[in-house]
Amino acid sequence: MRVATWNVNSLRSRLERVIEWLQTSGTDVCALQETKVADDKFPVMAFEAAGYEVAFHGLNQWNGVAIASRVGLADVSVGFPGVPGFGDPTAAEARALGATCGGVRLWSLYVPNGRSVDDPHYAYKLEWLRALRAAATDELAAHPDRPLALVGDWNIAPTDDDVWDPAVFVGSTHVTEPERAALRAFTDDGFTDVVLPRTGPGVFSYWDYQQLAFPKKRGMRIDLVLGNDAFASRVTDARVDREQRKPKGSTTGQGPSDHAPVVVDLDV
Question: At what angle do helices 177-188 and 120-142 cross, to 10 degrees?
Answer without folding.
Answer: 0
